[in-house]
Amino acid sequence: MSLDLDLLFREQAENANEIYERNVNAKLAKALRIIGFDNTYVKAKGAHLWDNKGRKYLDMLAGYGVFNVGRNHPGVRKVLIDFMEGDFCSLVQMETPLLCGLMGQELKKRAGFNLDKVYFCSTGAEGNETAIKFARRTTGRSRIIYASSAFHGLTSGALALNGSTVFREKFGTLIDTVKVPFGDLAALEIELKKGDIAAFFIEPIQGKGVNIAPAGYLAAASKLCHANGALFVADEVQTGVGRTGKFLALHHEPGVEPDMIVLSKALSGGFVPVGAVLMTQRIHDAVFSSLDNAVVHSSTFGKSNFAMAAGLATLNVIDEDKLVQNAEAMGNLLGQKLQALMPRFEFMKEVRWRGLMLAVEFAKPQSLKLCTAWTAVHALNADLFCQAITMPLLQDHAILTQVAGNHMTTIKLIPPLVIDESDVDWFVGAFETVMTGLHKFPGPAWDSLTRIAKNALA
Ligand SMILES: Cc1ncc(COP(=O)(O)O)c(C=O)c1O
Fold this sequence. Notes:
Layout: H1 5-12, H2 16-23, H3 26-34, E1 41-45, E2 48-51, E3 56-59, H4 62-65, H5 74-85, H6 98-111, E4 117-121, H7 124-139, E5 143-147, H8 156-159, H9 165-168, E6 177-180, H10 185-192, E7 197-202, E8 205-206, E9 211-212, H11 217-227, E10 231-235, E11 260-263, E12 275-279, H12 281-287, H13 305-320, H14 323-339, E13 348-354, E14 357-362, H15 368-380, H16 384-395, E15 399-400, E16 402-403, E17 410-413, H17 421-438, H18 444-457
Parallel strand pairs: 3-15, 5-6, 5-7, 7-10, 10-11
Antiparallel strand pairs: 1-2, 2-3, 4-12, 8-9, 11-12, 13-14, 14-17, 16-17
Helix pairs in contact: 2-3, 5-13, 6-13, 7-12, 10-11, 14-17, 16-17, 16-18
């Protein structure tokens, strides 16, 4: 008898947090419980989730930016069901899979920039590992430059490009890298001039903090890299595939000249892990330099026809449903509506966005009472203030959001690109109510925050 998924969920959904705590990651299970994020979701469609009690949620997190086409998109699902029911094959390995070649062709067409070959892998971190190796092999140099607050994944090579000590510390000696401030061309040039740099890795919009590269920075940085014999690598794992209102975030920047672009996350509609590294012919030739070297870099699941079928279906859905255009329109609507709230709420410092990658940043307010509340909460825990927003958004308004990074006073919104005006209104109405509560001190919003901080400390 085959596994009955319905039955599993019906009988055990209630205990999911406890089962996970026992068998997978106890600290994560507990942290989620403390902040009330321990729901079990059992159904998903588009930009919405349902928990095991039947409550409907608005998903402003999209699985960390995986579900650009929305969850369970029928156009992608049908192709995958057809694939399985048609007994197609995958991972023959000693072949040149058709769907892989076609997916490479589609990506090259959409990306442009004279990038000539595509290497396929399974995750964003693996894409960046690939780009690190390829940059070193192409240039014969080993050091890599990354930006403050950067996040390129958590495998050993990618970790050496991570801008946060929380992730890096106590994992031993990493490969030779150097950090420069995000957006600082002068600092970048000083490092490049040392002559030992293989590549500069950069996210056009940083996932941690939603920091948008200043206009002209990416183009100038790519030119500086080339003038100094280094490669320019754009990590578009989160910003790619329509997220920012263009297919790539680099398409917002005239004159940029990438040598490699790393994609993953949304590339296969969220059903199958997939990553891709687009590169110039020169890089491809340096790595795959002879017949003996034809598989000098590869991974078992990298070019699976199943993932490629999902990828081709996803690109098709993005075109047919005009999701890039919707990302731009809904991003502007949401961003402008949130910006319009700023004069009423002194905690709000900035709303910034490009397409459907948005941030609301908070800062210490002017008025004495609120300033006291802010200082007291920060003294308890640097991460707590944003939880005062994400927690009631989830518990009282059924909206899933996240804090933009460790010790940041910014919340981040990366919903599926399928959201419509009613979803925007749902979010803005809820956010306004939460802000109104937080601007009353003393008040219930602050009481519950203090309680949570004490629970966590205990
Ligand atoms: C910009 C960026 N690069 C790389 C990664 C790592 O991707 P993965 O988690 O698939 O390894 C992420 C993940 O969040 C990311 O946002």
